[in-house]
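Appendix B, example 12.
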Amino acid sequence: MILKSGEEKRKEDKAMIEEFKCEGHSQESLQGEGNLFLTTQRFTLEREAEGKAVTVFEFPLKAVDEVRVKGFIGKVLLLRVILKEINSGIEKIDFSGKKGVANLKIKVDDPKGYADEISFRSRKT
């Protein structure tokens, strides 16, 4: 992942996208394992494909509408994100003209740490 001007990496982990749902449908091509990056400005999941990193999805933190942690033992990070703000490097995935939200369920180490950082960074000013 290449950082943008003024951006700092806050967290990086292996993660499992257990669910990526929008408009009532599951986006299976956006689910699965990858490398998760949280910066001061955005949230990104990359996956290796043919020897290079492909951006599965990314969005600015200001696009996060809700963030929470669910579960007791196997905790997961739950995000609700404004759909039109999500970009993807996966062929035939384009949310730019879409309305509504996407719901993501992410298994990652320290989901509370991610939730706290996203909550802080996504505050509307």
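The CA atoms of residues 42 and 60 lie 4 Å apart. The chain has one helix and eight strands.
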